[in-house]
């Protein structure tokens, strides 16, 4: 649900851009958390380190606007990991699936709600109706 809200924007192009942003941040967070949780149990310092590594990685990838999203996604995956400590590595996978479904719903919702505008093309008021 959160991914859908994050992605749905005023226009289809804006929604598609937000979807790309959300997926980039989630995939980085997935990689960091998955590898960490395969070898280590949840620990507050581990979560802090992953958030820091994610922030540096996003900056180096040229996506500074996605640092906050990556940090939040990492925090969510890590905080729910202790719920099932024997299978904590599953949490990053669930977050990716959750985000993929939410992003798809948000983009499809934007496409459906803006389809008449996309088909009609620009109007005399700059495309606003």
Protein architecture, described:
The structure is a single chain. The protein is an all-alpha fold. It has a domain at 26-114. It contains five helices and no strands. The two termini are 28 Å apart. The model has no long low-confidence stretch (mean pLDDT 84).
Short overview:
The protein is mainly α and 129 residues long.
Main traits of this protein?
about 130 residues, globular, mainly alpha
Write the layout of secondary structure elements.
Blueprint: H1 2-7, H2 12-39, H3 44-60, H4 67-80, H5 90-120
Helix pairs in contact: 2-3, 2-4, 2-5, 3-4
Task: Briefly note the structural class of the backbone.
Answer: mainly alpha
Low-confidence stretches: none
The mean pLDDT is 84
The helix count comes to 5
The tally of beta strands, per DSSP, is: 0
Largest sheet report: none
Please report which band the strand proportion falls in: under 5%, 5-15%, 15-25%, 25-35%, 35-45% or over 45%: under 5%
Shape: globular
Task: Calculate Rg over CA atoms.
Answer: 17 Å
Give the helix proportion (percent range): over 70%
Query: What are the secondary-structure elements, in order, as H or E?
Result: HHHHH
Ends apart, CA distance between termini: 28 Å
